[in-house]
Amino acid sequence: MINFFRKIRQKLLTENKFSKYLLYAIGEIALVVIGILIALQVNNWNENRKEEILGDKLKVNLYQELLITHYHSKEVLKSYDFQIENIDFLLSQGANLNIDAFMQKSQEEWSMENFSFITFLLFFTEPYDPQSKVYESSLSDGSIKYVNDPEFVALLEAIYTSAQDLIEDLYFRETTLNERIEAYISENHKDLFEGDAQIINGLWDDETIKNLIKALINDGALRFKMQQKNNILKSKRYVLQFEIMPNIEKVIESHVP
């Protein structure tokens, strides 16, 4: 084929038909340019297809990760509700609280080695730490841009970044308050843990726990601190229940890969 075109060029030149040769040369250049453009277009199409496949796979992985986050969020929400309900009950009953009945009920609802129910109410802070490794990795390497679903990506940002920042701030405040509660009890009710107070398998004995509950009921300053803790818990529950969970459920229902 190359020899064929070469013969045509030579024939045109020998016959001094320069204008025809020029047109032929332009046509030949045009064919080359068109070939290059087609090759570039095919290459671009291949690259776009690779990115589309990568985006589709990433969306599936992000969706699967979000299903885990949904389950985790529901479990954390149950924990918030459990703490809030029992702290509200303690504070509302006050001197009318039947401590024995309360302890029996708590034993039926709560079982964890080396961690008493009253310790859970006073000092524990339930963290919100959803599964987000795939999401964070997609942000760090920039692959999130290949997901061709802007609303999906925006909702993930709201779930894993914006709203979670609010919970982390509340988590810090609650943890700080827990430390103040513990310091207050150690300073003002240290007699509860002296003398006959016993720690059995890492837990206080029942009598010490009863005395601690009595202190909580009768000490106004301690009650106020517990009310502050409960208010933070309710704020955490609100953010999770009404700002994070609806976005998770919207993604699950409307953005199935």
Annotation keywords:
single chain; about 260 residues; mainly alpha; two-stranded antiparallel sheet; 2 strands; rod-shaped
Measured distance between first and last alpha carbons: 50 Å
Radius of gyration: 35 Å
What's the total number of strands? 2
- How many H/I helices? 8
Give the proportion of residues in helices: over 70%
Sheet with the most strands?
2 strands, antiparallel
Regarding quaternary structure, how should these chains be classified? single chain
Write the topology of this structure.
Blueprint: H1 2-14, H2 18-93, H3 99-109, H4 117-123, H5 133-140, H6 150-188, E1 199-200, E2 203-204, H7 206-218, H8 220-254
Antiparallel strand pairs: 1-2
Helix pairs in contact: 2-5, 2-8, 6-8
Summarize the model shown.
It contains eight helices and two strands, in the order ααααααββαα. With 257 residues, it is mainly alpha-helical. A two-stranded antiparallel ribbon has the order 1-2.
What does this structure look like?
- With 257 residues, the protein is an all-alpha fold.
- 79% of the residues lie in helices and 2% in strands.
- It contains eight helices and two strands; from the N terminus they run H-H-H-H-H-H-E-E-H-H.
- It has helices at 2-14, 18-93, 99-109, 117-123, 133-140, 150-188, 206-218, 220-254; strands spanning 199-200, 203-204.
- Strand 1 and strand 2 (203-204) form a beta hairpin.
- Helix 2 (18-93) runs antiparallel to helix 8.
- The protein starts with a helix and ends with a helix.
